[in-house]
């Protein structure tokens, strides 16, 4: 103490100059008899302080210190003893032979001194493992129901930690824990609830009962109520995902009633929970939003922060529900806490009207430099939403974004801005030129390679179609001079795009490309040479194929195919046709990362040489994952590469005894039906599960693969393989299916069948259809016009006119046509400018077997929608099928 | 949970989730960053690196409680309040760096009692002080002991 007092007067921090070795030397003092508590406490504190500062002890050092520490059990000094417990816990991870203190700790934990007991339990539990736990089990049970709340809490929390290593043992304490839930102490109640939930969490029914019981009991502890709300939420989500939830369930009622709790903590938790539930309607949101509104005017910053953050979340899904709070939110814009202010503004941006945008943007600009990157990203996202909502405001917002782009910031922040600008360009043709100009300016001074590459790719795609393509060339060529290899390569590719699309720029581009052939980097040189020679041929279709369109096969499959090819050397050249086509990701799943993957995928230039294919982390498409699964079934390998897989079709209601869904896989000549069956009856074991199908004429059953065994809540798969009819017109039709199986009754608990005998049973499934869309893979065309003209010469054409009497709007018609044909709308032709009465929809796809299809649909709206459909395909039969299918 | 001094250096810190800031180096980097963001504005709450942090300062000390961004901010606040009040009671309202360091043992015990492995143990500061600071009475005896020796 003398030393300590002295030092603290002197240098300010008595712990500043301590060293590990000296402190460990000092632990020898622990061996003195009688123990000097003050001195020892001080030394212990030093050890703990060192550990806390991140100092590492070796196992021997830790074990030595630990053994010295055990001597201190002789002392009766309370603080020293407690520090010893703390030391044991800290060292438990590193030191060995901790077991020797078990008996000392057990003695303390059952002793008379209340002050020791709680801490001793926690220390003990941190050093026990499954085997030693048996020995102290009896004491733990006693401790859980101890009258002293501290002891009880300590025991409960320790058991919670123990569930990780010895869940079974803790399960045996359920009665004691149950008793503890009824305790008077707030914390005990909370901890007991936690343990109880963990014991039962695998059993949904039991948890349900638990919540039902406790929600009527009115728990005293706000923490416990918060916990209960979370459990209830989880149950609700589970119910929803299995499809059975309804808004008037008792669980939801309970959460809603918590909005009237007296503790703010509980009120907020409940409001937060309601907001976060996936399926809440705006009517259910209303009470939650109104309490959050109250919180907004609270004097506590934390409460305001919590409220605004949650409101911000609501605004994403239900902007109209938050409009009521706009006034309160406006007051928060000037909040002293920047986080609160930012959140308030972004929320307002989401809910506000067009007129207030200018004012809000000014407000943000005033403090945007003061907030952290995370919040800047939030702001950028809000602006993106705003641009989509109010396209007319794009100039204001675009200026703001470009100013933000010029500011300092991390990659993630810059990427989100660039993303936003790209989205705006894609959504709003008016904003295209300014947006591209801003991006050009940005890459002049961009330190992030990945971003520069993406922007160059975009320039290559969009630039040639602007009014003045030549102005972008300068920006792109600057990159070739100034940047590192990946950016240079991307710039070369972008220039080639210009060369292919703008004939008048071609000579200049060729000069530039020729210069790039001198580059120091292999990839850049290769690309330049490749593009140069293609462009030199002046062959339009060739340039279209290899420059504008890019690769349409799925990258992982290509990689695998090439790998296999190199493993078995043959004289036959590698055939690109055998690689499955990449599905165009559907709109909903295009997230920023997928976009990035696509852009990168286009960078792969040399399709002829296998060595250069970069392993791109492209998003694995649905086909990929199915192809992987189908490959694992040996019987199915012979049918060639998978062409297309459909979305799963439910063949039963979701709440029936057996749940069956069907996925249709098209192969070049075969149709494979995959039936995923789930057995929801716990007392039945199904064997030899198969599906019998009545097919339209022409289909031939080739193979049947039943699922040998299906026990409770397992998913099993049965396959049926058909050969497609020769005549294409017959491929479209309805299938009636019946599920057949052998039932064996079994014991629900063990899943073992009662006897070996079973009986045959069957179960009617709903009908499903094989449509045209199932046989067509979506592909995209970057330049539809060129492809269409080219096809005019080489493909056969069929045209027909239809009247779509049951469709009232063009949007509806477009949506229906796309989903019916299963083809990819290109050049954003699926978006219809407002107020137009005619529209041209362009679709591209590939029919199984590799026949290309291009479709041009001219729509006109009079009283009903009339449609002129022109199909160009390499196969006349396919073209006929498309036209006849629409009729 | 962390207590930092007015240069952003760690006095005491405890992280309960091994997935977040696994090494001491990462932890300290985070603390520095956190300190830089918070030491000027007294705003009570901030989001950083995907964590919600509530904080409170006094003289030359900063008290922080961090939690996942999905955590109920008010629960974090109640833990922070408990930490602060408990320390303040233990130190007899002299919440400053020198005094904390002098009584580091007791403060360590208090932090241990507030939270065990990420689970809130006790949020009532007076109950906590009762459990920890049995020697609160003889803290002023610090002077006496000097005299005694």
TrEMBL record, chain B:
Keywords in UniProt for this one?
Cytoplasm, Cytoplasmic vesicle, ER-Golgi transport, Golgi apparatus, Membrane, Protein transport, Transport
Q: Which InterPro entries match?
A: AP_mu_sigma_su, Coatomer_zeta, Longin-like_dom_sf
Cytoplasm among the record's keywords? yes
Q: List the Pfam families.
A: Clat_adaptor_s
Q: Spell out the subcellular localization from the entry.
A: Cytoplasm; Golgi apparatus membrane; Cytoplasmic vesicle, COPI-coated vesicle membrane
User: Where does this chain mainly localize?
Assistant: cytoplasm
Biological processes per GO annotation: intra-Golgi vesicle-mediated transport; intracellular protein transport; retrograde vesicle-mediated transport, Golgi to endoplasmic reticulum
Write down the membrane topology.
Peripheral membrane protein
Q: Which residues form the AP complex mu/sigma subunit domain?
A: 2-135
One Gene Ontology cellular component annotation?
Golgi membrane
Report the sequence similarity comment from the record.
Answer: Belongs to the adaptor complexes small subunit family.
What is the role of this chain?
Answer: The coatomer is a cytosolic protein complex that binds to dilysine motifs and reversibly associates with Golgi non-clathrin-coated vesicles, which further mediate biosynthetic protein transport from the ER, via the Golgi up to the trans Golgi network. Coatomer complex is required for budding from Golgi membranes, and is essential for the retrograde Golgi-to-ER transport of dilysine-tagged proteins. The zeta subunit may be involved in regulating the coat assembly and, hence, the rate of biosynthetic protein transport due to its association-dissociation properties with the coatomer complex.
Relate the assembly described in the record: Oligomeric complex that consists of at least the alpha, beta, beta', gamma, delta, epsilon and zeta subunits.
What's the protein name? Coatomer subunit zeta
Where does this protein come from, organism-wise?
Cryptotermes secundus
